[in-house]
Structures are given as C-alpha cells and as structure tokens.
Amino acid sequence: MTRVHIVGAGLAGLSAAVRLAAAGRRVTVYESSGHAGGRCRSFHDSVLDAQIDNGNHLLLTGNRSAMAYLAQIGAADTLAGPRDAAFPFIDLQSGARWTVRPNAGRLPWWILCPGRRPPGSRAVDFLAALRLRNAAADATVRDLLGNTGALYPAFWEPLAVAALNTPADCAAAAPLWHVLTETFALGAASCRPLIARDGLSASFVDPALAFLARTGADIRFAHRLRDMARRDGRISHLDFAESGVVVQPSDAVILALPPAGLTSVFPDIPVPDGSHAIVNVHFRLDAPPAGKDPATLMGLVGGVAQWLFVRGDIASVTISAADRLADDSAERIAAMTWQDVSRALGLGETPVPRCRVVKERRATFSQTPAAMRLRPGTVTKLANLFLAGDWTGTGLPATIESAIRSGHDAAEAVLKA
C-alpha cells in the first residue's frame, strides 16, 4: 500500500495526515522539533504558572476547513465563544464601546442599525466591501476601503491587520474578500467568534496526535529534512539529519514547511519573500474579570494591541504587523499593552501583573500583492511531490483556516494522483 511521507507537523501537515489516515493510507510524519503544531501550540509558563498559547488565534464558525478538522479528530466541542455573532470593541482613546452584531441570514440588514455597527459609521460604508470582489492584483486594503470614514479604523483596518498580519496600506486586498464571503456574508451562523477553550494544543494538536496514533500513523520528531533526491521526475529519497528514507515508486511526499524551509530543500519553486512579526502578551490576573464570559474577546482601537482575549484569569493581547515593537524590551511592551488591558477591562490604575511576552519575529509571510502572486499551488512538477502550508495558494490569508485547508488540499491531491 502507498505510504505518504509528510514533512512538517504544523497544522498543515497534521490536517493532511489526519485526512489521509482516515482514508486508509499509511502515513509517516516527520517534524524537526520535539513537538507538533508549529506556531499553534500551548505550553506551561513558569512565570505565570499557567498553560498559555504561543499566540492567540481567533476562529469563526464559517471556517469550514478548521471545523471539519476538529470534528474529524473529535475536538469539535473544545472551542468557546459568545452564543451570538458579537464582536465587542473599545476605543482606548475616547472610551467609546460598541458591538458589531451581524444578523442571521444572508441579507445584511444589520448594517442599517446604528446599534449594530461602529459609532459614526454609515451603512453605505459597508458596501465598499464589494470593491474587494474584483480587486486588482496590486490593490491594497487601504486602496479599496480607506475612504470609508469612521468604519475604516473601527472595523476594516483591525479586521484586515489581524487576518493578514500586514499593515493595511500594503496588505493585499483580494484575500480579505475570501474571508468575508465565507463568514460575514453568510450571516451570523458563519461568523460567530471562537477561541480554543483550553488552549490551542488541547483543541488542534493533542487530539490529532491521538487520532493518528489510533490509525497507526508513524510520527517521528527531531527529524530535520536536509535534502531530497529525485529520479525519473519523482522524489526518490529523503535525507534527514538523523537518517535517510527511501521513497518507494508508489509513495507520495507532502512538504508542509514554511517558505524558508521549502527553499532550503527544493529551491525550484519561487516562494513569498519577507515576513512580519506578531507579538503576544499574556497577563495573569488576580481573578477572572467580573461580568465576563470564561472565554472573551474584544477588539481594541487606538491602542498598541488590536485584540484582547480573556480565558479565565489569563488576559492576552495580540499585536499584528509588529515588526518595530518586536525590537523593544519585554518590560516596555508589557507596560504599554497593560494600559490597553486595564482600560478595556475597567481595572483602573493597577500595577503590571505577572506576564509573558512572546515574540514571533517571522510569524507569517508579508501578505502584499507582490507576495500573493508567488504563492505556489499544491501540485508540483514532480509527480509524487505536493505542498501544504498557510502560505500556499489557498486564496485565504495565512491563518489557521488556510493552514488546515492547504493540508486537506494536499491530501485530496494525493488521493487523486
């Protein structure tokens, strides 16, 4: 029976492995580090004495690939969020608060209700989203949405920066259209916000590893791919630092690596160049905030961070496109972002609590129009070699949904090959 060799145990590699194992294929996954999940993982932090995520990730109920993946590994009930599609925001400069509340159904009458949209915005400003449908290849988010008045800083910009991890004035506009058509455009049922209730590993990684173990998949950690041999238009050998693996004529190979990792072993394929940082700060509060759900998120406007996540007594903020901030000291970053957190949660002038600053200096590729044109597809010129990763040509921004969808696409390509 055909064996599929999957290099990389991030979400792209795991989702491909799960799909293939469920289809009865023999699967071996190779991971250079000692853990699976890539950027999507949790760990116990000694300073906070708590389990925290490497980075904060927001999902929406319309993320169909992520939802299908969680259902397949038996983790569909591990996400938490508000019962309704509600996105609370605060303007940290003025103190104004509002909640974006899409309605049920595809007819977006909610944009006509001032109480369901940002203050000062107009219903006609939402219609600017239609410009994204036929966005030119070189169009940026600011080009198409920057003239929407109060709606731009209060909704479009934080949404785009969070999704694309690229400043809005140079972020490609086209991927945002795919986000909207799969979530907000379908109504409240497809855009309810969700976060991992007990952490990213508990939702996306540990159940996947358990599923793969039950299906007999082979997971090999501490295996770094150094090179690949080719013969007759196929990959014939994988050269790991620890050992070599012969790829049989009927086998397939999926490279689920970041762009730099792919280039080091397969330089034939142009890949998106450049990257942007994400900075996450996790604070251990004295107690869970009063009046808040156990799992809460809030958009932050006019501050350092863009999004606040609260899970129990851990409050975390995410700063996307944070290249300049990533060079600051952890102490300065914590002090600046704690001001955002204390204002948003109404904690008053309180000292900075115990915290952990996590800097991901190359979190995603720089999602500019030029970079989007370099995203490769799943199928390569070699008959048994396929690609997966959030940076490949899924049409979506480099998110959890994109990573999982790329893994599913690679698995389907293998099954059809």
Keywords:
single chain, 7-stranded mixed beta sheet, globular, alpha/beta, 5-stranded parallel beta sheet, FAD/NAD(P)-binding domain, Polyamine Oxidase, Chain A, domain 2, 417 residues, 3 domains
Q: Which term fits the overall shape?
A: globular
CATH superfamily of the largest domain: FAD/NAD(P)-binding domain
What's the overall average pLDDT, rounded? 95
Number of strands: 20
Low-confidence stretches: none
Largest sheet: 7 strands, mixed
Number of helices: 11
The domain tally reads 3
- The CATH class of the largest domain is Alpha Beta
Q: What is the CATH architecture term of the largest domain?
A: 3-Layer(bba) Sandwich
Structural class: alpha/beta
Radius of gyration: 22 Å
Give the proportion of residues in helices. Answer: 25-40%
Tell me the distance between the termini.
14 Å
What is the topology, as strand order, of the major beta sheet?
8-7-16-17-18-15-19
Reported by name, the CATH topology of the largest domain is FAD/NAD(P)-binding domain
The fraction of residues assigned to DSSP E strands is: 15-25%
